[in-house]
Design brief:
The complex is a heterodimer of chains A (287) and B (297). Chain A has 287 residues and is mainly α. Helix content of chain A is 82%, strand content 0%. Chain A is globular. Helices cover 28% and strands 25% of the residues of chain B. Classes of the chains: A mainly alpha (287), B alpha/beta (297).
């Protein structure tokens, strides 16, 4: 019985749980916008593309967040540029750009002597995190969260109807780059928890779960945050007994919640769809 | 609504728009609209209709020429909330998690502070706009749970709440039933009488003579512009549409005691335009008959 409560006796576990919950919440808020804007692949791309920026920032001693941010902008910017100047479609361009940048980051990493393990960057290391990294992740995540909550209605309109946003005098270019910046900042924080490879899960799964369950944005935000925080806590807790793989446990919990939502969601779930199909007589829509 | 819109005019002068890849979508387009008019923007797909809309909305910057709204550049006009836009149904993500009320309130964003918290005035105007399009009872529906006509009315309500003086409508009648089409036209007429400029981009040639005062015919440039009676002619349509129109010339000489009763049906696979003897524009009285217009003159 005492084994169940054992993790809570350690300071590092409590800290890891709190940080995981905060990062989960920030990613969840962002994920709602990414899912609605169709930026899932963008999230995946930027989360990989930040690696060279992080290595570079490490070399010159700048904050890793800054390096990641610039790297993310390079990824988004060059994707946009190549798309408008060639006949290749955007998702294809993105695939090339982010894998290229990720590979560049790996090559740079192998040439630089660091005291950071590559594994920690690739897979996260919440249970063995340095205090300075933890503070950096917390600050970055908090700023991203405040910006998103303050501008949540502008960002929502940006995702919903850019034309209208423009004609009521909103600066959509600014909002585009703001969303990109928030994405980069959030990725830096998420790296600490789950690492580069699994960050994209944190950036889309909570939003997807919420999108299945609710069709009002404010409720969607709430559901996304609750599911992400729950997953972060459960994943971190379980990983204590596995002696690691914290990020994977968090992401796995999210994936399970997604499956549950997909089957059980009140209106858009599989069971609901079947119930509706059975309840209504067969109708054929005539044009 | 509260006010009769004051004189805001729209002047498009020598506008040329080229895209990054060098494609010139529109060249030397000129026309101007005075307050209190419904104007149709007619042309084939790819003729530059949407480019012209984008130029008026400030989405593309003309390489040459200017768009001026009440003498101001478009950006300044947007700050004053003068331009409202009603999107084409296909351009809206109907599964987006917003309610009818949320969408109408978006019309007020330009008036709200940066946190976009609606004030009493915003809520009142949003409510009045919903009443005006008769959508009050659907206020809390998610937008995907509406019929085609209701969807259109929600976005019209948003334009009303915004109190735009120039209202751009993109294909307002696609997916809209016959009755709603009439209701929308009635509403547009009211707005025109209030002094608004209504610019409608449409394929539905049959409705144009019914409710549009003016017509801009476009194919890469403005081919013709003027009052519907004199501009929306068979010759100009042939010019604008070329081979893209279905052209049925029906000559009913079998009516006993009648003169030759020639009838031409022009259609772009949407509402057909019926041109009577001598180029007279037939207003569609039996509106739901437009698909069968040829069989029963």
């Amino acid at each position: 019985m005492t084994r169940i409560f054992e993790p809570f006796q350690y300071g590092f576990m409590i800290e890891a749980l709190l940080v995981a919950a905060l990062i989960g919440a920030v990613c969840a808020v962002l994920s709602c916008y990414l899912v609605l804007e169709g930026w899932s692949l963008m999230g995946d791309a930027i989360s990989h593309a930040v690696l060279p920026g992080i290595v570079l920032a490490y070399i010159v001693g700048a904050p890793l967040a800054l390096g990641a941010f610039l790297s993310g902008l390079v990824c988004a910017g060059s994707t946009g540029w190549i798309k408008t100047h060639s006949r290749v479609k955007e998702d294809t361009v993105m695939g090339i750009v982010f894998t290229g940048l990720f590979a560049l980051g790996l090559v740079m990493f192998s040439r630089v002597q660091t005291d950071v393990h590559l594994n920690h960057i690739l897979f996260g290391s919440l249970l063995g995190i340095e205090r300075s990294d933890m503070i950096q992740a917390t600050v970055t995540a908090s700023i991203a969260l405040c910006v998103m909550l303050a501008l949540r209605k502008d960002l929502l309109l940006y995702c919903f109807d850019q034309n209208h946003a423009k004609v009521v005098g909103m600066n959509t270019t600014f909002l585009h780059y703001l969303l990109l910046s928030v994405l980069s900042a959030t990725i830096v924080a998420a790296l600490q928890a789950v690492g580069i490879i699994l960050t994209v899960a944190m950036l889309i799964t909570p939003g997807c779960i919420a999108y299945l369950i609710s069709d009002r944005f404010d409720r969607m935000l709430l559901i996304a945050v609750i599911s992400a925080v729950f997953s972060a806590l459960v994943g971190t807790y379980v990983s204590y007994f596995l002696d690691g793989a914290t990020g994977s446990c968090i992401v796995l919990t999210q994936a399970l919640l997604f499956v549950l939502a997909m089957v059980l969601a009140p209106k858009h779930g599989l069971l609901a769809a079947r119930r509706i199909a059975r309840a209504s007589p067969v109708t054929v829509d005539l044009p | 609504m509260d006010h009769i819109a004051q004189g805001i005019d729209l002047v498009v002068q020598d506008v040329t728009v080229a895209y990054n890849n060098g494609h010139v979508a529109l060249h030397d387009a000129s026309f101007s609209l005075n307050p209190g008019t419904i104007c149709a923007l007619v042309g084939v797909n790819g003729s530059g209709k949407s480019t012209l809309f984008k130029a008026i909305m400030g989405f593309v910057r003309p390489v040459r020429g200017t768009v001026r709204i009440a003498g101001d550049p478009v950006k300044a006009a947007h700050k004053k909330n003068w331009v409202a836009y009603v999107p084409q149904s296909e351009d809206v993500d109907w599964s987006f998690p917003v309610s009818v009320w949320d969408v109408v309130l978006m019309g007020r964003y330009g008036y709200m502070n940066f946190l976009r918290i609606p004030g009493a005035q915003d809520k009142r105007l949003a409510m009045e706009s919903l009443e005006r399009v008769k959508m009050t009872e659907f206020k809390d529906r998610q937008i995907g749970e509406l019929s085609g006509g209701q969807k259109k009315r929600v976005f019209l309500a948003r334009a009303l709440a915004q109190q735009g003086r120039i209202i751009l409508l993109d294909e307002p009648f696609t997916g809209v039933d016959f009755k709603t089409e009439g209701a929308i036209i009635a509403l547009l007429r009211e707005l025109r009488d209030d002094g608004h400029i209504i610019l409608v981009s449409t394929h539905n040639l049959g409705t144009v003579p019914e409710f549009c005062d003016q017509v801009v015919m476009i194919n890469r440039t403005v081919l013709a512009f003027g009052p519907t009676e004199t501009t929306f002619t068979e010759e100009n349509l042939a010019l604008a549409f070329g081979g893209a129109l279905r052209h049925l010339r029906l000559d009913h000489t079998d009516v006993p005691g009648a003169e030759r009763n020639e009838l031409v049906v022009l259609t772009d696979d949407e509402g057909a335009l019926v041109v009577g003897a001598g180029g007279r524009l037939e207003r569609r009285k039996a509106r739901n008959d437009d698909q069968k217009a040829g069989s029963e003159p």
